[in-house]
Amino acid sequence: MLSSKGLTVVDVYQGWCGPCKPAVSLFQKLRLEVGPDLLHFALAEADSLDVLNKYRGRCEPTFLFYAIKDEALSDEDGCLSRGKDGRADEDVVSSEKTCTLAIIKPDAVVHGKADEIMVKIQEAGFDILTSEERTMTEAEMRLFYQHRAGEEAFEKLVRHMCSGPSHLLILTRTEGAEDVVTAWRDFMGPCDPHVARREQPESLRAQYGTEMPCNAVHGSRDREDANKELALLFPNFRFTDTETPQVPNTQVEPGLLSLPPDPHLRGQ
Predict the structure, then answer these.
(1) What angle do CA 64, 66, 53 make, to 5 degrees?
(2) What is the CATH classification number for the domain harbouring 26?
(3) Where is the composition biased (Polar residues) (predicted)?
(4) CA spacing 20 to 30 A to 3: which of 76, 116, 174, 196?
(5) Could you tell me the residue range of the domain that residue 190 belongs to?
């Protein structure tokens, strides 16, 4: 992650206090505004990482800033390990193909349909590059659906998406096939499951959705939204297409900004 182009900000915290939630939301918002290739944000618990031992007892919070410098990757504290080829080990997913985000929503997961839906996705010609099961936070979903903030059903949608675990997938398709974003939206069917059953009975929402917002699956509206949503929910995802090229290994230089404690943010 530290080898990515742009600025990387790490919020170092301790378990007794927890990360600064307002800062998390702020950096997620900024990341969407300036672009996923220019700003990266991560959380690190000092008590769990020996390399952060020197920050224990004074994380209120502490922010570490890493910026690109030149062609060689280095780290004065040894935070990054190198493989046999001299490159830093990274926990990233990368793809040279056009990708989109797919979410199997909590209503489908709680009814045990996630595995069945993933099989249907693959049978329909999609490749699942990676999948992750986790429960979304309210802050994530408010930011994720911020374009719908003025709608009457916004609060209900946010509550639903935070109500239990979802399956997050990165999808792509075979070279030369239909654009993956459009193909995935067509395969999902209309947003309203009742409409889907009437107009596209073979679609996923027709088969697994019940009523809004419990329509089983989510898909990005277009390529731009797909890139933004992937950047928000898969911050280590690395694009290698012409729109957001893969970044080569580079040197990062750490900087430290220790903010004074704010009683209003402690434990938030």
Answers:
(1) 40
(2) 3.40.30.10
(3) 242-252
(4) 174
(5) 93-239
For 46-85, give the DSSP string.
GGG-GGGGGGTT--SSEEEEEEE-SSS---TT--S-B-TT
Q: 163 in a domain, yes or no? A: yes
* 85 pLDDT above the threshold of 50: no
- Residue pair 101/129 in contact by the 8 Å Cβ criterion: no
Give catalytic status of residue 218 as yes or no.
yes
Specify the CATH number for the domain of residue 191: 3.30.70.141
Q: Is the pLDDT of residue 128 over 50?
A: yes
Q: Are residues 60 and 107 in the same domain?
A: no
Pick the catalytic residue: 167, 194, 218, 264? 218
Number of domains comprising the chain:
2
pLDDT at 76: 40
Kindly report the number of other CB atoms within 10 A of residue 175's CB atom. Answer: 8
Rama region for 189: left / alpha / beta (φ>0; ψ in -120 to 50; rest): left
Mean pLDDT of 128-150: 89
Residue-wise pLDDT for 52-63, tens only, equals 888 877 766 788
Dihedral sign of CA atoms 80, 85, 86, 92 in order: negative
